[in-house]
Amino acid sequence: MNFHPWINAFHIAAGVIWTGGVLAMAVLSACVSSSSGNYAGNMQQTLAGFIHRWNRKVTTPAMIILWGCGVVMLVSHGALPHAWLLLKIIAVLAMSALHGILSSGIRKMVNGEQPSHKLGMAGYKVVIILTVIIIFLAELRP
């Protein structure tokens, strides 16, 4: 039986879930960087707590599944990857790094601290750009 379509489907589903979670963290980080006031602070801390729990229970496991399925497909292929795939892996590594940076910032927000990163409004734009690059590379395989 050929398991590749199943592994690929899990890979894609995990990618969608992971990207959504990273985008949610990036949007919250952008909101925090552009707002002030006590009400905003309390609301942001509550939202940060929710997103932090979601990140631990959904987003991070989705990233692990995505990477696991990707590695299985790469190893099962048995040949050196094409240039498009190497570029895709670099983009996914960048997204993974961004996930880590945003996770750290959300964790600090939950503890009532300011995030140390200065992504501001650029964070969600980077997530969108990386997502588009990854999808185009995976679909078009230039």
Automatic annotation (TrEMBL):
Keywords, ordered alphabetically: Cell membrane, Heme, Iron, Membrane, Metal-binding, Transmembrane, Transmembrane helix
Family, as annotated: Belongs to the HemJ family.
Pfam families: UPF0093 (PF03653)
CC per GO annotation: plasma membrane
Cofactor: heme b
EC number: 1.3.99.-
Free-text comment on the cofactor: Binds 1 heme b (iron(II)-protoporphyrin IX) group per subunit.
Protein source organism: Citrobacter amalonaticus Y19
Entries under InterPro entries matching the protein: HemJ-like (IPR005265)
Reactions performed catalytically: protoporphyrinogen IX + 3 A = protoporphyrin IX + 3 AH2
Keyword Metal-binding: yes
Protein name: Protoporphyrinogen IX oxidase
